[in-house]
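agent> fetching stored inputs for the iron/sulfur cluster docking request
agent> found them:
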Amino acid sequence: MMKKIIISKKDINSFYKGLKEEFTVYGVKEKEKGFYVFDETDEFADPLNDYIPTILPPKKYLFPQQETLLRFDTQPHPDIQPVIESKKQILFGVRPCDIHGINLLDKIFSSDHEDINYTHKRAETVIVGMDCLRPCYEHAHCASVGCLDVDEGYDIMITDIGNNFYISTNTPMGEAIIEKYANSIEASNEDKDRFEKLIKERKDKFEMKFTTDVSNLPLLFKNADNDPIWDELNDRCLGCGRCNIVCPTCYCFDVFDCMELNMESGERCRQWDACTLNDFAVVATGENFRSTRGQRLRHRFNRKFNYLMTKHNTSFCTGCGRCSRSCPVSIDLVETVNAVIKNNKAEVK
Ligand code: SF4
Ligand code: SF4
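agent> prediction call returned; pasting tokens
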């Protein structure tokens, strides 16, 4: 049973700064009006309480946009050295939807074939969550995909209960950090009651935006291959890949070699790829298995609500709304899902 404690609002900044003695700490800052990013910040950022999802999710510190996997030499003898980089880091202020995103990446990169570049980074990462008590912006649909509440994948959760922050530790590491760096006191019965009331009340504040339960989506999408929505989206989508790049659960990458000019040594690297890009499904003969933008978007939606959901029994959309916010032609995830539900509802018993 982990401890329930509080940290006063005036003490949160010294807690944040203290962590920097031992860890690289990534917090949230406002990059430009209304747009937030995770970055190394000197102080606990004021907007942390109210920030809307960052431009990129914090997965960038576990699965960077580009990273070196190995270095090789061909002379005087062939030699290959793996490159596995990790450091003690804290992601501070991660919202429940993004904690769910990291939990899903944990599943993907640890099951079947372990991805050691990811798992080494993850093992050295502490996650300090920031709870949501009200909807953050119009694109969010976390409650509709079961991602408002989170019970694993974080070390500490911070909840704003008014004058103080209510702190729930979830791991021995979280406890140790609070013990070492926080000026904290045990939560009183009044604090606990206030916390429980806020958590209970928030349920009614979050709208269920899908017109069916999320558990019905795999069957609906399975039968929606010929849905007219894909032709409609084919005409609108630009195939730009932004929806993939901002998504906390997209994990596809491309691997390529960079040779030195001497052509004897080099690096093997990977970088994020995007299934909505034209050449994503091109194979060696030049055939493209998903040559139209509509086919590629159909694939992307099936990844979130059918293929991976069927395999792992959980939605691979966390409801963060980043794809809808960043799409240059306003293709909206909730509208698309509801169109598929409407056109295929006869399939759901
Ligand atoms: S599909 Fe869109 S809303 Fe869902 S997790 Fe990815 S970016 Fe967020
Ligand atoms: S962001 Fe919008 S336009 Fe770009 S690939 Fe995704 S759906 Fe298409």
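agent> quick read of the result: Residues 246-249, 304, 317-323, 333 surround iron/sulfur cluster (ligand 1) (CB under 6 Å).
agent> awaiting further instructions
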